[in-house]
Fold:
Amino acid sequence: MNDAKPSPVAGPASTQSGVLAGVSAMSNSSGVRRAIGTTIGQYHGRTCARGEPVIEFNAVDKAFGPNVIYRGMNLKVRLGETLTIIGGSGQGKSVCLKLMIGLLHAEGGQVCYYGEDVGRMNAEQLRELRMRVSMVFQGGALFDSMTIARNVGYALREHTDMGDAEINQRAAESLTLVGLGPDEYPEIMEQMPAVLSVGQRKRVALARSIAVRPEVILYDEPTTGLDPSNCNRIARMIRKLQRELGVTSIVVTHDMTTAWYVSDRVALLHNKQFPFVDDVPTFRAIDDPIVRDFIEGRTS
Ligand SMILES: Nc1ncnc2c1ncn2[C@@H]1O[C@H](COP(=O)(O)OP(=O)(O)O)[C@@H](O)[C@H]1O
Ligand SMILES: [Mg+2]
Structure:
C-alpha cells in the first residue's frame, strides 16, 4: 500500500544486479549511447542510482473537460526496475505513460524526470526526453512503406549523425535482441512489415524502441491481441532487455500472467490514484477486496 519505503529494487532483477551493472556499463559506452548522449543514471549533471526514483508523479491532476482521470496522484518509478501498471479499461493507464513523455500535460502537480518538470520542458528537451524514455505504442505503428531495417533505424537516422553502415548494424543488433536477427532471418533487413505476423510486428516495434538504447522503455499493452505463446515470448523479452541493457521498464497491461512474470513492482490504478504499489510477493498477498477482485479477474 505504500510507495515510500526506500528499499532497493525488489524481485528477480535485483539478483542480477552484478551482471546488470557490467552490461549497462558496456552498453553505456556503445556507439548508440555515445551518438545520442544517453548514459543510464546520468542526465545533464544529475545522477540517479539504481533503485532511486527516476520518474516521479507528485500530486498530479489530469482531466479532459469534465472527465477527471487523476486527482492528487503520486507514483515513483525506480531506476532499473520493471513497474507494471494495472487497472480497468479507460481509467487512464495510457494517459499515465503519455504524461511521462510530455505528450499530455497535467493541470496540477508535477511529472518529473531526474527532478526536472516534464510539463515545463521545451521542444528540444522533450525531443531528448523521448530518446531516453522510449514508448512502444499500443499496436506497434510501423511504417508500412519502409523496410524493416529502416523502421528500426528510423530514430537514429532522424536524430543522430550516425552513418548508414552503423545504423544498419544497430538495427541488426536490435532485431537480434528481439529474436529476429539477420543470422536467423537472413532476409529480414530488406523485407517490408507486411510480411510479418502480428507477434513479429510487435517485436519489430520493440526493436525500433531499443535501437536508440533508451534508459526507460514504456510498454503500452505489449501482449494484447497475442496468443499465449507470443505473450510469453514478449514477456521474456521485456525481462531480457532489463537484464541485458539495464533498462527501466513501465508496462501497462491487464494480463496478470504477464504482470507477475515481468514485474519487480505492481501499481494498481483505482479511483484516480495508485493506492496500491508494491513488490510482486507483497502485492499478491494484499487482501483488500479492490486488489483481490482485480487480480482474480472479477473486474477489468
Ligand atoms: N487526448 C484525449 N482527449 C480526451 N480524452 C482522452 C484523451 N486521451 C484519453 N482520454 C480519455 O481518458 C480516459 C483514460 O484513457 P486511457 O488512458 O487511454 O485509458 P486506459 O486505461 O484504457 O489506457 C478515457 O476516458 C479516454 O477517453
Ligand atoms: Mg490504454
Summary: The chain has one domain: 12-295. Residues 1-30 have pLDDT under 50 and may be disordered. The CA atoms of residues 39 and 187 lie 33 Å apart.
